[in-house]
Design goal:
13 helices; four-stranded parallel beta sheet; alpha/beta; 15 strands; Rossmann fold
Amino acid sequence: MSYRKFLTLFSIVVVLALLLAACSSEDPTEVPAPAPTEAPTEEVATPEEVAEEPPEEMDEGCAGTITLGAAVSETGTYAREGKDTRQGYNTWLSWVNDEYGGIKVGDECYNVEIIYYDDESDSDTATNLVERLITEDEVDFLLGPYSSGLTMSTSAIAEKYGIVMVEGNGASETIFERGFQNIFAVLTPAGNYTQGALKALADLGAKSVVIAYEDTAFPTSVGQGAKRWAEEYGYDVLAVETYPVDVDDVTAIMTKFRDLDPDVFVGGGHFNDALLFVNAAKELGFAPGGMVITVGPSNPDFVSEVGSAANYILGPTQWEATMSWQDDYFGNPADYAARYEAQWGEPPTYQAAESTATALALQLAIEQAGSLDMDAVRQALFDLDAMTFYGPINFDETGKNAAKPMGTIQIQDGVINVVAPSEAAVTDLQYPMPPWDEK
């Protein structure tokens, strides 16, 4: 049972008790004074309500349960990234309940549960499910979905009801340009995704670039940001192309780019787009000196899918296990990666790590507020200034994380290595990329 439901039920019980006492009094003028209101505890719950909570989720030493809600893709276009998001949330959930001892609110602790629904990678479905989480499930706070498009629509519902949503997988700047006060994102904004790679490639002599991106919120921010950074670093932008969501063939775009013979290709999309870019480029013999592609290259599955063709490809990354940030909760990135792999049988993607960091940021704000009051937690998020295994978290007035830099990885001999920024790099960036048959 959520904290919000608990307060509602407690108030009803108090009112009914007073009415019964008044009706049973022999002298109707002698109505007993109301009992002092106390903070709700699990002892006042009825047997039926206690039965709603699985016994194994409750720590008898805790005051109750905080219920979080999340619409996350189990099916559809974002199913792969949705799995990473869900597993990231659940990594935190296991830790906070089983090891940390629940979220500390003042002198009390609260266990946590998360209610999930499959948004089917569809905006309308996600919107309806988040409204259900708020109005029917009466969750206390929200965790975000995967993708900027779904975050854009679901955060509007959170704003409508004044419910805080913390997210780690919607990077488009447009999410934060609406004056909302209930959306907070731990990740670096999408417009900065390619900055590090383009700067490093320019330093190595790259002078021209072509850019392709999906015509949806996140890739558009990536693509427009790439154009801006390319111009700042002196590139000749030879062409910019967009393509529709769920595209299954990028041959025409890649043929045009091949004929322009650029030094660098930038592709803004999701995992499946990254596969399309690489497979088409290889088939067409399009081998620019540098290929910078979002989402795909930082996922270990990418190497499994395309094999040696993955070598030399660059990708923006929000987080990698070799980075050096550290906290008192999950330790350093290597510690987190070991924990995650032990729990899920696979290494974490940055989407998983940022999802864990999302839930951790909400936890830290609740503890800093010392309250479950929505206004207090919202203000605590605005005030939050924390170092985590995922990096620094400090939200600006729009809800973006203003403190965290973006990393760049390059796949070298099948291994994902951080190559920028210099303070996080574990090896040098290799440029130019050789022809496909020499990889």
